């Protein structure tokens, strides 16, 4: 009874390996987000629910099972990723305030920094040293950061109007003079993180189709232009696209009603998402009963195989469709296009080709995959 909470917890035996696994699962699995952790007591099989404080855990372990209600939630926020470009010595005031709460990446080589920004989607902030970069390098980095949706900050060793004007003119999220007190720098960075999370939440809402919970057409248009330009700049690599249509969807709506139609759209979207796992791929609702799958770094044969995989996966769901013509189940038609981005070609051309092949697939009887020169799947 005389032990403090801290002493009590310190005297307990080391946590079992199951706890380490549970902790890892909670921190890495999106399904645990915004939930108070739940553990099962191995002996009694009782659930340990909602013990959000050390005091509550202390009382529970002492056997005091008083009922209480707590509306707290546990929100696991991944550590922000901060990339620094400049001299480590000069940027040390920033490192000192972010190293405990952020993943820090440092670069003094332009090519390495640009390569990192292109290959990583999880960078939150790019902090650039004002004194370290010429205008041409600043333009290159900030344009790339903007295209990759990375908030960027201009930091200067000494506060100056010239540095702040340079930051504002180039569209910086923040200007950070490093000769200010650590408290000021910390407050500025905390605000950056808060604003970034608020903006990310709004951006996530803006890019997701509210019904199907896959990406919407706006996000797809952004991504295909981005990937097309990336491959064009590199000068190699294929960009492939699947345009997908649910067969005879209007008769389905007329027969089963719009609520059933919405449920069908959600189910098909989930099947498509679960079966498109290629790196940097994207599934989006294109409009109505049409979906798209963007497949960068994928050639025509591979993309056609993905299309056939999706066709079979949707058919295997056996969603009843008495007004259809294919075994009275929901099926899809898929148009495939693939190209190497070159001068003169556009992402719009790729969409147009995929649309032409979707038209051919539907005209040939639906429930099949049509690509340049070939058709996959079954008509009946």
Describe it.
By secondary structure, this protein is α/β, with parallel strands linked by helices. The chain folds into three domains: 5-61, no CATH class; 81-207, Rossmann fold; 217-377, Alpha-Beta Plaits. The chain has helices at 5-10, 17-28, 54-61, 88-98, 110-119, 135-147, 161-169, 182-207, 217-234, 249-256, 258-275, 300-316, 347-363; strands at 38-40, 47-49, 81-85, 103-107, 125-129, 151-156, 174-177, 239-246, 282-287, 290-296, 332-339, 368-371, 374-377. Strand 1 and strand 2 form a beta hairpin. Helix 4 packs across helix 8 and helix 10 packs across helix 11. The termini are far apart. 29% of the residues are buried. Mean pLDDT is 82; it is low at 32-37, 67-76 and 374-380.
What are the key terms here?
380 residues; alpha/beta; Rossmann fold; Alpha-Beta Plaits; 3 domains; 6-stranded mixed beta sheet; 5-stranded parallel beta sheet; 13 helices; 18% strand; disordered C terminus
Short structural summary:
46% of the residues lie in helices and 18% in strands. It is an alpha/beta fold. Helix 4 (88-98) packs across helix 8 and helix 11 crosses helix 12.
Low-confidence stretches: 32-37, 67-76, 374-380
Percent range for helical residues? 40-55%
Helical segment count? 13
Classified in CATH, the superfamily of the largest domain is Reverse transcriptase/Diguanylate cyclase domain
- Major beta-sheet overview: 6 strands, mixed
User: Do you know the CATH architecture of the largest domain?
Assistant: 2-Layer Sandwich
Q: SSE order, as H and E?
A: HHEEHEHEHEHEHEHHEHHEEHEHEE
Give the strand order of the largest sheet, numbering strands 1, 2, ... along the chain: 9-10-8-11-12-13
Query: Based on CA inertia axes, which overall geometry fits?
Result: globular
**Top-tier CATH class of the largest domain:** Alpha Beta
Secondary-structure-based class equals alpha/beta
Rg of Cα set: 27 Å
Number of strands: 13
Number of domains: 3
